[in-house]
Amino acid sequence: MTKEMIITGDSKVIITNQTGIHEKLEEVVHRHLQYPSKKPYQAHTQQAFAEIDQIVQAFDGDIILDSCCGVGQSTRLLAQRNPNALVIGVDKSAHRVNRNVVELTKKDSVEQVSNYHLIRADLNDFYRLVVQAKWSVAQHFVLYPNPWPKSKHLQRRWHGSAVFPELIHIGKEIILRSNWRLYLEEFQQAADIAGRQGDIVEVSDSQPLTPFEAKYQASGQKCWQLLLG
Ligand SMILES: C[S@@+](CC[C@H](N)C(=O)[O-])C[C@H]1O[C@@H](n2cnc3c(N)ncnc32)[C@H](O)[C@@H]1O
Question: pTM (2 decimals)?
């Protein structure tokens, strides 16, 4: 296969040996759809989920999930734009989730909003708990997930992961963004296998939703969005 270079927002150069949809994508997705994950849950995610689940079950309005939220800039922006919704940002990195909210709020010029929560949890477990608890999620954002561009890492991408069968049923809308269009094309194909369809368009927002989006735009890279209805 030909090698392709991708510049990331961290200015690192990623080499990928993939120039098209992964040849094992269909096989991997079908296998995961057929055999649901039975991996034990990590205690910290179970605990975090139990706390937020009480709040969600008591809330009478739209739930918006912001997966892989990093420092939570998008979570706060979405909360500001949807004042009647409850927005839940989830990231596995305690460092990112716990960064000083006041400082970041000033930096991303989001007004003080309170209709959101930032949760430290591993989505490989969290997604399964969301489905078991039957959360009704209006919008599910997955903004700039780690791309894992090496071909051998297909199963680290969300659409190649064992939790994809749960992920794909969370959200009346799923909004996925990446600077690697092929990631979205693969996700789109995997979603189609699972019965959901959607289109890919170039992101044209004037205000970046996340720090990674801001970095990609500043370095002249195109950002892409897949919207599954
Ligand atoms: C490339 S960063 C993007 C962060 C943010 N969405 C942005 O655009 O600035 C990817 C994020 O996904 C998070 N992440 C990766 N795997 C995860 C998992 N299994 N559960 C929860 N978060 C995860 C990482 O900790 C990281 O913050």
Answer: 0.93
